[in-house]
Amino acid sequence: MSAFTPSTIAALVIAASFAAGLNVYATVLTLGLLAHAHWVVLPQGLEVLGDWEVIAVSGTLFAMEFVADKIPGLDMIWNALHTFIRVPVAGLLAYRASAHLSPEMQLLATVAGAAIAMVAHSSKTAVRAVVTPSPEPVSNIALSTSEDAVAIGLTWLVTQHPWTAATIAIALTLLALLMTGWIVKALRRSWSRMRGA
């Protein structure tokens, strides 16, 4: 059974925040199931994730997101609404994970967690806005499924190899930031086409 040390909690904050920005329910569910099965010892502030009530709620919400996020049009509404869920919950997870730190460091961890989640969530939503107008549903389903897989895989990986997961999350965050210009141009083209039609 692996456990987080003070030095690996930063890795947990980074990787779990990125995963939560993609799919917060999958992230909470994965951490909860791993903790409940005693495959990982979560930091003291996050032990509640292993309770059956949290697992049941996050599992139900994950099932709802799994369906809603794959329906073109509905996925855009779902993702827009989840701006007010994914980012705050990622910040809360970071806050609880860093409860043993000084108040200043805990605040820094909370802001960093929310910011990383915001980058992941914004890039997901922007890419989805480019893909959703496509007439065929396959690309939307494939994109959503891959996002789910990354969220679950990254969450599992951070419990086994924290700094490997954190490095991947940092690389994906930087990639998302670098792709911002391309995504904005693609969105403008999509809007121009829709206005022209």
Q: How would you explain this protein's 3D organization?
A:
The protein has 197 residues and is mostly helical. The protein has one domain. Helix content is 78%, strand content 2%. It is built from eight helices and two strands, in the order βαβααααααα. The protein has helices spanning 9-36, 52-68, 74-81, 83-97, 103-131, 138-160, 162-178, 180-196; strands at residues 2-3, 40-41. The chain has a two-stranded parallel sheet with strand order 1-2. Helix 1 links the parallel strand 1 (2-3) and strand 2 (40-41). The chain is globular and about 55 Å long. The mean pLDDT is 91.
Q: How many separate domains? A: 1
Rg result: 17 Å
| Portion in strands | under 5%
Count of DSSP-assigned helices:
8
Q: Strand tally, please? A: 2
Largest sheet: 2 strands, parallel
Determine the mean pLDDT.
Answer: 91
Order of helices and strands: EHEHHHHHHH
Helix content: over 70%
Low-pLDDT regions: none
Q: How is the quaternary structure best described? A: single chain
Strand order, largest beta sheet: 1-2
Global outline:
globular
Structural class designation? mainly alpha
Task: Note the gap between the termini.
Answer: 58 Å
